[in-house]
Amino acid sequence: MSDLKLQESAGYFSNIVNNGPVSIFSYCLSSILMTVTNKFVVNGANFNMNFVMLFVQSAVCTLLLIVLKTLGYAKFRAFNKTDAKNWLPISFLLVLMIYTSSKALQFLAIPIYTIFKNLTIILIAYGEVLFFGGNVSSMELSAFLLMVFSSVVAAWGDSQAVAVKNAALVAEDVTVGSADLISTFNIGYVWMLTNCLSSAAFVLIMRKRIKLTNFKDFDTMFYNNVLALPILIIFSFIVEDWSSENLAQNFSSDTATAMIISGMASVGISYCSGWCVRVTSSTTYSMVGALNKLPIALSGLVFFDAPKNFLSISSIFIGFLSGLVYAVAKQKKSQSPSK
């Protein structure tokens, strides 16, 4: 009887592992979970220890990878100095990318952050043309124009929301709060631009380094996180306030839990990406990546005080449409015979 139950449970587990809809749902859930938990942490009053937050997430990710390897669910090469030396520039770019991402998310609403993140796709696409050859199809160009348009609409809707808040502050005679609100609005877009540039540089340079080191997915994850740990903690000690008062102000049991969940979600995203491709197809995965931006953006409307006006909501759906068009364009290009 025990053997029969064991076989039944194994068959049940196999059905889940090879289930396409489950893999898609898991990928979407891990993406939303990571974005929402990051926003929860950086959205705290006077939060100013982004490097520590990222250190905790990388540490959790590294420990989880080691556990998965010990249990036989992940395979990656052991740490060695040669690979570490070759991969170190990528880790610096990773730190720049995740830090600017956390700062942009701190000052911008999740829907606006998600929409502007689409602009990274344009930089990467033209970077690949410049460094690796190829071309941009007319359908891809259409998707890029939609991405730019959605970003313009999002910025317009955000400025409209700021104007409404400023008017309310003026009506209440709170002039200092109004000035602070305007400066926050400007800083968020500066961090977002920096993040788009650093993200594109990270992806393009990593592509070259992967060919040099012959890294697989888990190798990349392991080295990215292990090498990022000393960089993050050193920069934290240099630029962040480690006084007991500031630590108490920045960290609570809720924020610590959110950081741990975010680190686990980052591993989940990577695992679910491969899982989704394996049990469905690369086409389905591309479509899911495009469709996933909609629930991520909408989560900002549900869980946080994101702008809720006609322009901001329209920008979400235009951004969603641009991602869908881009996914279809990439699939058509992959099916067309190479010239």
Structural notes for this entry:
There is one protein chain. The model is unreliable at 1-10 and 175-184 (pLDDT under 50). The protein has helices spanning 2-17, 20-42, 50-70, 81-107, 110-117, 119-132, 138-171, 175-213, 217-239, 244-250, 253-279, 282-291, 293-303, 310-335. It has one domain. The N and C termini lie far apart (61 Å). The longest helix has 39 residues, at 175-213. By secondary structure, it is mostly helical. The protein has 14 helices and no strands. Keywords: Cytoplasmic vesicle, Endoplasmic reticulum, Golgi apparatus, Membrane, Sugar transport, Transmembrane, Transmembrane helix, Transport.
Task: Give a brief description.
The protein has 339 residues and is mainly alpha-helical. It has helices spanning 2-17, 20-42, 50-70, 81-107, 110-117, 119-132, 138-171, 175-213, 217-239, 244-250, 253-279, 282-291, 293-303, 310-335.
Q: How many beta-strand segments?
A: 0
Overall average residue pLDDT: 78
Shape: globular
Measured by DSSP, the beta-strand proportion falls in under 5%
Number of continuous helical runs:
14
Low-pLDDT parts are 1-10, 175-184
Domain unit count: 1
Task: Indicate the radius of gyration in whole angstroms.
Answer: 21 Å
Largest sheet: none
Give the helix/strand class: mainly alpha
Helix and strand pattern: HHHHHHHHHHHHHH
Keywords: Cytoplasmic vesicle, Endoplasmic reticulum, Golgi apparatus, Membrane, Sugar transport, Transmembrane, Transmembrane helix, Transport
Subunit structure: Homooligomer.
Membrane topology: Multi-pass membrane protein
Family: Belongs to the TPT transporter family. SLC35D subfamily.
